[in-house]
Design brief:
The chain is an alpha+beta fold and 296 residues long. Strands 5-1-7-6 form a four-stranded mixed sheet, with helices on both faces. Strands 2, 3, 4 and 8 form a four-stranded antiparallel sheet that branches. Strands 9-10-11-12 form a four-stranded mixed sheet, sandwiched between helices.
């Protein structure tokens, strides 16, 4: 294969038309086969496996595989992680689905890939024969234009473009900002990614330095679709530059695009600047008691 050839295009040329080669009438419907794929992130680095077999031998892949009869995607992924990595998944959180193509013994066929965020903790990976090696690649280093030549399967390529856009974080700066909001807070990396899955995190930079962030999560009540601004943080050295306003307006736009009717938030009355900002943006003080119950 030439270096400038797209492996996905080459695979399509080689495998040809699925229903014609198999001679199966029901196969002509081109119903997709289900796959399940693990997104395993540690220190904002993505786990990739180098394929040790065709198709796409030598390209990088994500842990996972095809669903077997009577399996749901999460059951498939637990099995595949056990087989491919020699470990147990601690928790799975569904992220999204992408259509694509699979290849097998001279045929190509449609697939629907289910992507899950998978928490494996600090377990030691033990590869089976399907993979030659593994690496932890910083998400920021994923290059969308090079992915088709670097990563196996078109569904993976499309998903990783989304992953880079939404899950790239400077974890050290995030920790520093959170400490300014709550000196006792400890960042749970997996919770950070789940916050993106459940809503949206807006970040603002000065050159390459993270200077502020705000996150919003969506919830559906019996009455309306609404969202909550959980926290807004701007580095104390950047106060007065309008970053808080920019972050909030971006969150408003994100919510509007998704049909959210009401946004709510709570803030400490002692945070004078924050309270003034929210009122300036049109937030009305809601006369209600706010209670917290610690579940034990």
């Amino acid at each position: 294969m030439q270096n400038n050839e797209n492996p996905m295009q080459e695979a399509g040329k080689y495998f040809g038309d699925y229903s014609r080669q198999i001679g199966c009438e029901s196969c002509a419907f081109r119903n997709p086969k289900g796959t399940a794929t693990a997104i395993i992130i540690r220190d904002n680095k993505l786990l990739l496996l180098k394929r040790n077999e065709e198709p796409f031998k030598g390209l990088w892949d994500l842990p996972g595989g095809y669903m077997q009869e009577e399996e749901t995607p999460d059951i498939t992924l637990n099995r595949e992680i056990r087989e491919e990595l020699g470990i147990e998944a601690k928790e799975l959180t569904q992220m999204s689905m992408y259509p694509g193509k699979g290849y097998w013994k001279g045929t190509d066929f449609p697939v629907i890939a289910h992507f899950y965020l998978v928490d494996i903790g600090q377990q030691e990976i033990k590869l089976n024969d399907e993979s030659a090696e593994y690496q932890w690649l910083p998400i920021k280093d994923l290059e969308p234009e090079k992915l088709p030549f670097f990563v196996a399967f078109d569904s993976n390529v499309e998903f990783l473009k989304e992953l880079k856009e939404n899950m790239t974080f400077d974890l050290e700066r995030v920790k520093e900002l959170i400490k300014q909001l709550d000196s006792s807070a400890v960042l749970n990396e997996q919770f950070l990614y789940k916050a993106v899955i459940d809503g949206h995190i807006e970040q603002i930079y000065e050159e390459d330095t993270l200077m502020g962030m705000g996150w919003l999560f969506v919830r559906q009540t019996m009455l309306r679709k609404q969202a909550v601004v959980e926290d807004l943080i701007v580095d104390e050295v950047c106060r007065g530059k309008g970053y808080g306003t920019k972050i909030m307006l971006a969150l408003h736009e994100w919510a509007k695009d998704r049909g959210i009717e009401v946004i709510e938030l709570t803030t400490n009355p002692k945070r004078v600047a924050a309270n003034e900002l929210y009122q300036k943006l049109g937030y009305n003080l809601h006369p209600t008691n706010h209670y917290l119950f610690k579940v034990q």
